[in-house]
Amino acid sequence: MDHLDRILLSGIYNVRKGKTQLHKWAERLVVLCGTCLIVSSVKDCQTGKMHILPLVGGKIEEVKRRQYSLAFSSAGAQAQTYHVSFETLAEYQRWQRQASKVVSQRISTVDLSCYSLEEVPEHLFYSQDITYLNLRHNFMQLERPGGLDTLYKFSQLKGLNLSHNKLGLFPILLCEISTLTELNLSCNGFRDLPSQIGNLLNLQTLCLDGNFLTTLPEELGNLQQLSSLGISFNNFSQIPEVYEKLTMLDKVVMAGNCLEVLNLGVLNRMNHIKHVDLRMNHLKTMVIENLEGNKHITHVDLRDNRLTDLDLSSLCSLEQLHCERNQLRELTLSGFSLRTLYASSNRLTAVNVYPVPSLLTSLDLSRNLLECVPDWACEAKKIEVLDVSYNLLTEVPIRILSSLSLRKLMLGHNHVQNLPTLVEHIPLEVLDLQHNALTRLPDTLFSKALNLRYLNASANSLESLPSACTGEESLSMLQLLYLTNNLLTDQCIPVLVGHPHLRILHLANNQLQTFPASKLNKLEQLEELNLSGNKLKTIPTTIANCKRLHTLVAHSNNISIFPEILQLPQIQFVDLSCNDLTEILIPEALPATLQDLDLTGNTNLVLEHKTLDIFSHITTLKIDQKPLPTTDSTVTSTFWSHGLAEMAGQRNKLCVSALAMDNFAEGVGAVYGMFDGDRNEELPRLLQCTMADVLLEEVQQSTNDTVFMANTFLVSHRKLGMAGQKLGSSALLCYIRPDTADPASSFSLTVANVGTCQAVLCRGGKPVPLSKVFSLEQDPEEAQRVKDQKAIITEDNKVNGVTCCTRMLGCTYLYPWILPKPHISSTPLTIQDELLILGNKALWEHLSYTEAVNAVRHVQDPLAAAKKLCTLAQSYGCQDNVGAMVVYLNIGEEGCTCEMNGLTLPGPVGFASTTSIKDAPKPATPSSSSGIASEFSSEMSTSEVSSEVGSTASDEHNAGGLDTALLPRPERRCSLHPTPTSGLFQRQPSCATFSSNQSDNGLDRDDDQPVEGVITNGSKVEVEVDIHCCRGRDLENSPPLRESSPTPCSEEHARGSCFGIRRQNSVNSGIVLPISKDRMELQKSPSTSCLYGKKLSNGSIVPLEDSLNLIEVATEVPKRKTGYFAAPTQMEPEDQFVVPRDLEEEVKEQMKQHQDSRLEPEPHEEDRTEPLEEFDTAL
């Protein structure tokens, strides 16, 4: 509507009003604005006195008696005309051309939704042709110049949408718009309706959903043309009696109200009602006033109620019934007209239908407690779809399997041990037998079910397959075959040749050792092949004949030779991870269709730079990351390692992202996350990139897990910005950290989630769910909250038709129905905790907690375990994006990597002893199974980027040619035995360079005594040291040591002079250091007095009594970068220590003095003091 307030033409011309010559010509200001001609006096044009002539639908005519003149006429019975005389031909033609366009316009529909309007724009009232006006999602007011009380001016208005305006009170003047046929007033907070609504006699559709109505006025019965009345999600406790008067209505739409009793007697009195929608009420019981049958109701929807028994046998004309997600134990219906029945997710043990439903075509009894298929279902002659999965069936009647009408049979997740032998040909097309106890399939299955196109027999105990043909040529039409997780051997491969039309074949997690080349050669129609989890050593070279193959999944085998798949013209996805590949033979040109190549987990595979260059055009290349320079922090991975798998399925984009950081917060914890955007890939990637950094900031602000986790989600929600307005994402975040609250536990696990992503902990072989599913179907409390806030829940159980989730990050336009508030739980980790599984909605829809845990408990490699979970989900019918992360836990003393040296390791609340420290052994590099991979991609997928946190130069630099053996290392401590955090100042290690003329140690001249451990070159002092982990010589005036110290202290410690300072960045942290006796002198120094209590760059405050020597405390130390994209820092040339030639002798002399000081004789008993603790500094 922006063009309506724009002036098209204007000028001062001679104007005459009317068609006759009674009026004189006068000079006027003429403006063609929008669709109107505005004529005003030249003097009074600024005062608002003007004549407005709507031109839409009117006409423009030439005035023949006057040169260069036009007659502008409006439309309608009382049309007005203005004659305008122009001075030149050019002006005449310009006005005629522009006005003709305006006249030809027909503005009948105006959409002003979501514009934050408080009133209708004034220029709209000049157009009388508006028939439909949409003002949805605004802030319309009643008493304003363009408010709702002025809408009656639209004389032709037929449709008006005022939903979501929070009006509170019904605009009574709307009842004066007698032309209205459609009125939408949903979600406005109305508590009652005025009686004047009965004046809208032409009204045909009235929508009042999402209000607080409890009754309807009797005057509503005057609307005899009303054919649709929506009063869903209000507060009605019974069906309004006015329905009896509205004879044009054929539906009762009252979903989401407060009905507790289903009174069939009321419905019997409404002979015009055919459809009844009572979803999401509080129905518990049913009342039948008489035995008279109801012959007019054909469709009933009772989903998501609280019914335990339902008897609708009196509804003789019932054709369709929805009663899912109740608590039904028994169901009784009339079968005269029954066509479809949906009764899943109940507790049904018996379903009675009489007589036999001869018209029944679809029956869904899944997720119940049925032990056998009802007899009447076996006798139904027209049934085409039967779903009895997730029940307690032990056998399948032969009458069902041999039905001449059945097209689709779902028998999965039962206890069926065998199927009856087929004798006659059947028209069955889809057969699902997964998760049963089958050891064999009927021998005549493929020969009698010639129309069978889909067969899923995964998760059984099949050892062989029946033959597909009896003669020379097979007539099988089978296209999709899923046989994952069985006991099949190589002997089943020849049988597959009998299915020449196979397009998708899944044989994962069986006992295959070879795949004969001659057999694979005959499967020319193959498009997707999954052979993962077997014992294959090679893929036959005849796979090159499968010209239509676009997906090959063969991870977790023993394949050593790269298959010849790069010759296939349509290959897109190849997964050969977790094998024994050593080299790859690459053709001259790769297929342009190749998008994803996964080679992770092949520990012996070495790719040359030339190979990587050839692979550079692949969208996603996943290979093992080369081992990084070992640092102390890498030892933390001893306690946990992870593997990640993400598969797009049959969708063309991946909307799942994951976060994995084995070394988080300087190596003292770990963070893992899963994000599912459903249909959008933007938000999961944004959350993957930002959420770890947000968590790190919040952890530094609060130690309360509920506080910092909740703040992490809220801040991440805010950081989504405009992208989070209409898009949303489920999010799951798991944080492992040292447990200071529970002395019996070493680590605690804090889990927070919104949406449908879930985390499950395996404790002692049993699954322990740690998250909560926030969806309308699985969380009644959340569904009730959304109902109370008057959201509109559509029939597919989605909030406003957008999402089934009630809590998400993003989707801010659906507030307050969709919230970012997470569910938070904390669990102390014990030695019984084996692994942690993170998965998105698609994974947990197809795998139970128990099956997922049992599937990966004994898999050694976490990457292979995650791959296995995704493969199982796809083989069980998942066609959506699926993501799984498996975190192996090794929480126990056997996982400790501390340098004990005869020391007693402290508990979580103890202090470490102060003794001499030896060099630590070299930490092991992470294995490839940790799931860390690099991607060479034009669109770098962050889920594959290494999560290794960058190290500072002080962690990685070598000694620059000096003898580092002379410098002892501190005791390396693992995260299992951290030093106590109470009273300790924690700081990230850094490299600091101090100018000599600004150093606070008082050494500003070359002739001063140099500080021990610091090398000067005459112009500046260069220090590369963990600046918060040095210890002074003597102890004085320190707080007393706690009695619970696990190791004895020296006599001086016993007098109360021990204070601890802990390193935070690595596993070497945890060394308790006493404060120097020079502390009091340091406080008196004017150069240091300003430092005490100063806020440091990482947000910490140095207490007055906790400060160190100024050469050890830097006020502006560069912070270590953390986050998912943080890469390890590289050694810069200027960071390397170079000794000038003129100082070489001086350096050697200092090193000699340093070595001699270590060989000083032991002092006498009475003079013995605490020995100096020295640290490894990269000088």
From TrEMBL:
InterPro entries: Leu-rich_rpt, Leu-rich_rpt_typical-subtyp, LRR_dom_sf, LRR_domain-containing, PPM-type-like_dom_sf, PPM-type_phosphatase-like_dom. Residues 927-953 have a biased composition (Low complexity). SUPFAM superfamilies: L domain-like, PH domain-like, PP2C-like. Keywords: Cytoplasm, Hydrolase, Leucine-rich repeat, Manganese, Membrane, Metal-binding, Nucleus, Phosphoprotein, Protein phosphatase, Repeat. Its main location: cytoplasm. PROSITE patterns: LRR, PPM_2. One of its GO terms (molecular function) is metal ion binding. Residues 641-889 form the PPM-type phosphatase domain. It catalyses: O-phospho-L-seryl-[protein] + H2O = L-seryl-[protein] + phosphate; O-phospho-L-threonyl-[protein] + H2O = L-threonyl-[protein] + phosphate. Its EC number is 3.1.3.16. Residues 978-1001 have a biased composition (Polar residues). Its cofactor is Mn(2+). It is found in: Cytoplasm; Membrane; Nucleus. GO terms for cellular component: cytoplasm; membrane; nucleus. It is a peripheral membrane protein. Residues 916-1009, 1142-1179 are annotated as: Disordered. CDD domains: PH_PHLPP-like, PP2Cc. It holds the Pfam family PP2C. Protein phosphatase involved in regulation of Akt and PKC signaling. Mediates dephosphorylation in the C-terminal domain hydrophobic motif of members of the AGC Ser/Thr protein kinase family; specifically acts on 'Ser-473' of AKT1, 'Ser-660' of PRKCB isoform beta-II and 'Ser-657' of PRKCA. Akt regulates the balance between cell survival and apoptosis through a cascade that primarily alters the function of transcription factors that regulate pro- and antiapoptotic genes. Dephosphorylation of 'Ser-473' of Akt triggers apoptosis and decreases cell proliferation. This is PH domain leucine-rich repeat-containing protein phosphatase 2.
